[in-house]
Amino acid sequence: MKLRSVLLTAVAVSALLLTGCSSTGSSDTAGSDSTSASNGAWSYKDATGTTVKVDHTPKKVVVLNDIAISFVQYGLHPVGTFGQLTMADDARFTGLDTDGITQLGTGYGDIDLEKLAALQPDLVVTSVYPTDEKGTLDTSQPGYGFKDMAQQKQIAAIAPVAQVRWGGKGLDVIKDITGLAESLGAKQSKVDAAEKRFDTAKGKLETAAKDSDLTVVSMYADGDGAYVTRPADEPTLQMYTDFGVDLVNPKPKGFYWGIYSWENAGQITGDVLLLSQQGYQVADLEKQPTFADNAALQAGQVHSWTFPALDYASQADYMTKLAGWLDDSKKLS
């Protein structure tokens, strides 16, 4: 399945409900408010407008890999995870403590419901992507990482599901995920330290972007063609744009991706390429006749785009690397 396949398709067993867990509809405006009352009750208003309620602060949480990374960075320890990549194959988990976290599947939509039920989770957390540049959420479609609505309903019968908006301004998403993590018991010392590192990395990236005056392309590629990310539609790239990075907007129209056939891939230009950790890698691109002479590819100015998790720590790490890449690269276009 292609990277962020839900976005591509958007634009082009059952278990008893755990005692004490419920989710109820809320008002028509969705926020990210979470509360943990003095009596132990916990609630969270998710991106879909649903207020998820648990009669105690959830301790056993199953989380989409994109967000599980952030939770671990903040000192939380999910009991299980799922997503497009396994922890072993996802470079973002490198160096993180994953002991005791159960891998519930090997790919998108692959979630072992029996394993999930055996974990007796208090809460399942995933994300939801907008379907257009206006930020529209299609609640008739499953949350990210779920195969279909039937599977989502089976999961919701095991534990309530909370969905975090993965769109709009990157800093807003970071704040939402951080707030959710804090409501679940994240270590404040880790959050504060991560935010300080983030601020330092932001300064380095702003300086490198200004001094280098380079253009940057974020892309995924496979046998069908090259997919250039539209910066405004990806929260992390939107944030980097705010920090001064000159990210290239693809010419083909469409939400999130500008899709180039290999016949037209020669139109993709930039000084630095951020290449998805999934799909074609450098050796594959070098075999494409219409792309092998790409200036950034020939200059060796290609680096891994890991879709860094939207938390202060993960972003600090990636922004520091990106600043270094910009400092070490030369102008090609």
Structure in words:
The protein has 333 residues and is an alpha/beta fold. Helix 6 runs parallel beside helix 10 (312-328). The protein is globular, with a radius of gyration of 20 Å. It is built from 10 helices and 15 strands. Strands 10, 11, 12, 13, 14 and 15 form a 6-stranded mixed sheet that branches. The protein starts with a helix and ends in a 5-residue tail after the last helix. The model is unreliable at 1-31 (pLDDT under 50). The chain is 31% helix and 20% strand. It has 2 domains: 5-186, 3-Layer(aba) Sandwich (Rossmann fold); 193-328, Rossmann fold, CATH 3.40.50. A hairpin with a 5-residue loop joins strand 2 (34-36) and strand 3 (42-45). The protein has helices spanning 5-11, 65-73, 113-119, 149-156, 170-183, 188-212, 235-242, 282-285, 295-299, 312-328, and strands at 21-25, 34-36, 42-45, 50-54, 61-64, 80-82, 102-103, 123-128, 161-165, 215-222, 225-229, 246-247, 257-260, 272-276, 302-305.
> Helicity range of the residues?
25-40%
Top-tier CATH class of the largest domain: Alpha Beta
Largest sheet: 6 strands, mixed
What is the strand tally? 15
Oligomer: single chain
Structural class: alpha/beta
**Could you name the CATH homologous superfamily of the largest domain?**
Nitrogenase molybdenum iron protein domain
| Separation, N- and C-terminal Cα atoms | 33 Å
Q: Residue ranges: pLDDT <50 for 5 or more in a row? A: 1-31
- Any guess at the CATH architecture of the largest domain? 3-Layer(aba) Sandwich
Radius of gyration: 20 Å
The percent range for strand residues is: 15-25%
Q: Could you name the CATH topology of the largest domain?
A: Rossmann fold
The number of helices is: 10
List the domain count as a whole number.
2
Shape: globular
Write down the overall mean pLDDT: 90
Order of helices and strands: HEEEEEHEEHEHEHHEEHEEEHHEH
